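A note from the maintainers: we've had questions about how concatenated examples are separated. There is no special marker in the raw files; a new sequence line simply starts the next protein. For clarity in this README we add a label.
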Amino acid sequence: MSTSSADALVRRPFEGIPNEQDLVAMRQLIPAATMKARTTAEHGAVPVLIATILPMAWPAVRRSDGSVVIGLQATAPGNDLSRAFGQAIVQALALEPGSPVPALEVTAESPRLQDVLDLTGDFPITVHDTFDFWVDPSAERTQELEATIAQANESIMPTAPVEGLEHAYWVDAGTKEHVRWVLDADEDRVIDAVARLHAKRDSGIGEGTKYVGSFRAEGLTIPVWDLPKGFGADGVSKGADEFRARFEAALESTEPLTALERRARGGIVARQVTLR
């Protein structure tokens, strides 16, 4: 799955990796999460922990037990995130256990994640409310380490997966709550689906909720809904099954938009803002 050049722009870098949508969520949406993986036999069948971010925004760390942790929110050189983080794993494997990768050295020969990781696994994601996963299990938990983690924890906005709405994440952003849903669907089709529902006054996830726009990240579309304060992830989950069913039906529809739906779409596009 290698591209021809380290400089080639790859708009969907995680394509072909199991749980691609949650990988994008870890890169873009979730403050603290991990995902378990393993390298191929060619690369030693080494356990890999894919994380949202690491201390000092390191791209990777080789732990004292020989396993590797990579941080998806690290700065990645080049135009292919998969190649950058494949290189992060390779560089980490070349280090002595207990060492970080401070910077990446991406070249045309750098492997992509699809080349380094065993793609037969499930790649399960775990969302955390602390950065305790930073700690090497064999490391001593000193007062300095505890203070560093406690300080980092203060930056975490409460975030949780939405039960019944796979790859959707609720976040309490302080003044507002949101749901952001990572979809493997073209953005125009997503807007059409919202327009079909909006024309029937049915585009919200629940009472008082409102679709506010969408953005693209790593080749996938992420629509966003505002929620009333106090709605919570549980509030979204209560209506998730019914909402998912009607949204997916609207998304799969190939019927031309009606006049009312076209007006709804025009209003959505006119009001839509750039979101992150």
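[label: protein 2]
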Amino acid sequence: MTTTALRSTLQALARAVAATNTANGWSDGFTTAQIPERIALIHSEVSEASRERGRARRARELGDVQIRTLHLCELIAPDLLGELLWEPCLPERRPPLPVRIWLRATRPWQDLQLHGQISATLETYRKADAGRVNVLILHQLLDLIERVNALLLAELPARTTPTELILEINAANAGRGHRHGGLRC
């Protein structure tokens, strides 16, 4: 497949991820009261990425972060993601080599920033006015997607895009079956 054939909008990626996760039982009975639980799952994916030292394995875990985040966006407000974006697609241009090296060399700091960003999202859930909480959380999740994408671009091999990785992981998840072997959400 060519990159242009895989260049999906974030909204299309979120729909594809949500469809797979719904088929696997990860959307059953979702309510906004479950947002903290879903944020915790994103947190756990970042922790898994933090433990990976190889670039390919770390990229895969960061791809899982993107999938969990996109799914939560769709659960909170289906089809709203596209209306909140300046850039409808994930950027695919890798940063210059010195930037990629710096991002890799500062992984612990980068991971700490991700954890802080996720914790801030949870605080927004806890403290925001009920009428605005969903939109505020969506904006924070979009910021997280942007930051994780930058890290992905530093970890992925040349000529591989974050979109391709997300679609690859989503296809693998589609074949894993209901609730991925009975794991709790």
